[in-house]
Specification:
Radius of gyration: 15 Å
Low-confidence stretches: none
Number of helices: 4
Distance between the termini: 41 Å
Helix content: over 70%
Structural class: mainly alpha
Number of domains: 1
Shape: elongated
Length: 100
Amino acid sequence: MNKKDSYSIGINNGYSIAECNINDYEFNNEDDKEKFISEMAEYESDGFRQYSPFEFYAKEFNESRYPDSVWESYDNGVYMGIKKSLREYLRDNKIRIKKS
């Protein structure tokens, strides 16, 4: 497993998790956005990683030449996937949030 592949897996996982949960949130301000991102990242690390097929990814990450950088790349991908989902949701639903 390399960093590029783990990043791609992270984006897909983060995006999918956010897509499944985004309709349960309201976005009125920047704090709401940050809360959503934080809760989705927490769900990914505390919930999603406990089930298959993630255990197979984890095995490949851990057996890679540089596991720490592969994990870091995966985590960055998850974060970016969540942000991508949020960005698309706000755009598609014409939700504008003013910066504080």
